[in-house]
Amino acid sequence: MKCIYCLEDKPQLFFSKVEHVIPQSFGVFRNNFTLVHMVCDDCNQYFGDNLDIALARDSFEGGLRFLHKVKDPKKFRSSGKKSRLIIKVDQGEMKGTYVYREFSKDQGRILIKPLPQVGFLKKASDIRNYFLLKDIPDKTFLEENGYDLTTSDAIRIFAEDYDSAMQLLSSKGIKFRTNGVFEPKGTPELSWMCKVEGVIDTTILRTAAKIAFNYLAYWNNTAFMLHPSFDITRRFIRGGEKPDYPIAGVSPKTILGSEPEERKRAVGHIITVNWAADKESIVAQVSLFNCFSYVVCLAKEFKGEHRNIRKGHFFSPHNQMIFELGAKER
Ligand SMILES: [Zn+2]
User: Fold this and answer.
1) What angle, 0 to 180 degrees and rounded to 10, lies between the N-to-C axes of helices 202-219 and 231-239?
2) Smaller CB count within 10 Å for the chain: N or C?
3) 280 burial class (0-12, 13-18, 19+ CB within 10 angstroms)?
């Protein structure tokens, strides 16, 4: 048997695991799409440990699993300070602070907690800008940019170790008198309006590409998937090797034609695959929770059989159903 990712010939014994088209962390579906005897156990394990985990635990869509109840908040694991996501509070007196998500055992839900940081107030205003401890500028920069370094409550510190934060400030030439400890009103929680900035790096793009490749494999056989025209994509997904053309990217466009660009959209995952307009490349779109979509070039200048590969499905995490999409003729 030959694995569609590493292309190694192995006995069936090494194909004991089932590869899920959509990682199980994003929902389990009735009549789920799985690949049997196509992906070897080594590749399956590698994907679980390196790609699926990154998408689940440390991506914007990964966070949406809790909102859409695909995942129990108790199972939330914070990537804490080294997360791909930068989350800032966007309302109230904590506006501008950097936070991370953490599950609170006492309250049984995910709360946000401030990262270690210092906020400086702009003179004669109520604008406070926050800097993570590692990014605190020196005194001259702050003075030149109109920050108030003298008024006692102009500087706000969030740190687990208050004394070393004070020492750090002092090493930057910033010395001030404190006016007690700042206590934000209420428990910071995820329902506060937050601004999320995420880094969509190669690992996340490879995971999206794997979902697309799995999907194509589900509807076609191993022989079709083994065509050398897919080798570049295999190497990108399995080994992170980037070709000289954009193999995967992000589009803010919705996949479903009827969906609004903003506001509420149907909640579910969508995958589509088809020939590109040039009829030479195979292109897929993947959207988790129907927010933005990943566009993946599964093969460029495909030299194999030009069969009908057009497919599209909607995966509903709420009722575990998978629906085939009807497409309008172009
Ligand atoms: Zn393999």
Assistant:
1) 130
2) C
3) middle
- Give how far the C-alpha of residue 313 lies from the chain's centroid of Cα atoms, to the nearest Å: 21
pLDDT tens digits, one per residue of 194-218: 888 888 999 999 999 999 999 999 9
Strands laid side by side in the 117-121 sheet:
128-132, 117-121, 155-158
**Domain range for residue 152?**
85-197
Indicate if 210 and 307 belong to the same structural domain.
Answer: yes
Same domain, 191 and 208: no
* Number of folded domains that form the chain: 2
Q: Tell me, yes or no, whether 211 and 314 share the same domain.
A: yes
Provide the pLDDT confidence category of residue 174 given band limits of 50, 70 and 90: confident
Q: Looking at this protein, which amino acid is placed at residue 49?
A: D
Does one domain contain both 214 and 318?
yes
- 38 pLDDT exceeds 60? yes
The answer to whether residue 242 sits within a structural domain is yes
Percent of the chain at pLDDT > 90 equals 58
**Closest of 283, 269, 252 to residue 61, by C-alpha:** 269
Secondary structure class of 146 (helix, strand, coil): coil
* Secondary structure E strands in 65-159: 85-89, 98-104, 109-114, 117-121, 128-132, 155-158
CA 290 to ligand 1 center in whole angstroms = 30
Q: Does 205 lie in the same domain as 193?
A: no
In a domain, 1, yes or no: no
Alpha carbon of 321 to ligand 1 centroid (Å): 29
pLDDT per residue as tens digits for the range 107-130: 888 888 888 999 999 998 888 999
Say how many Å lie between the CA of residue 225 and the centre of ligand 1. 13
Is the domain of 127 the same as that of 17? no
